[in-house]
Amino acid sequence: MSKKGYFITLEGCEGSGKSTQLKKLEEFLKDSGVDFIFTREPGGTPIAEQIRKIILDGNNTQMCDETEALLYASARVQHIKEKIIPSKKEGKIVICDRYIDSSFAYQAYARGLGMDFIKGVNVYAVENCMPDLTLFLDISPEDAFARKGGADKDDRLEQSGIEFHKKVYLGYKTLASENTSRIVCIDAKKSADEVFAQIVKVLKEREII
Ligand code: TYD
């Protein structure tokens, strides 16, 4: 089944447990003998990682929302052309930590730029490289921050308050309700093992593993 290549993205609010689940998934896939790569956004290639540094630099407090959205989109095009599409063509399962739904949730909904603007600047991704499957780790920002033990003060984005993250969460919920065949909600309030079991179940149902 993995022969045709498959593009899976993992999404969620800050502290939703994405890193933990990605580690578990990596170990699981190594044991299963599946041909896969892990990557992330913003980033995933040397040029896109350089753009990531600009976006996440805590000193760049004057960056306007539109600039931020364009930087995410430009890093994404580089990532798609240099890594995601070639890897899919080789028949790999590509697993990406955040992707276009982060731009929809954070930039379109939470920053208020709107879906039309974000779809417009991401037209290359929308037309050429939408995920086959998106796993949304569903946990509210209140619960996620409580579990994480607070925000990282040096990270420009995590300096945003809880109200911002509530908007991000609502954005994700809206996207999930509008894209029911692509976006699968995973109950991320459960224990790490229980969350991972839900992920494995979805991958098996879709015959990815
Ligand atoms: P990161 O430190 O990787 O956070 P996390 O561990 O929560 O994934 O930082 C990525 C940040 O970038 C995160 O706050 C979400 C944000 N982001 C956007 O706002 N739009 C996007 O399109 C992407 C890919 C990320």
Counting DSSP E segments of at least 2 residues, the number of strands comes to 5
Give the C-alpha Rg: 16 Å
What would you call the shape?
A: globular
Structural class determined from secondary elements: alpha/beta
Strand order of the largest sheet: 2-3-1-4-5
Give the H and E element order: EHEHHEHHHEHHEH
What can you see in these coordinates?
The chain is an alpha/beta fold and 209 residues long. Helix content is 55%, strand content 13%. The protein has nine helices and five strands. Strands 2-3-1-4-5 form a five-stranded parallel sheet, with helices on both faces. Helix 1 packs across helix 9 and helix 4 packs across helix 8. The longest helix is centred in the middle third of the chain and has 25 residues. The chain is globular, with a radius of gyration of 16 Å. The mean pLDDT is 93. Bound molecules: thymidine-5'-diphosphate.
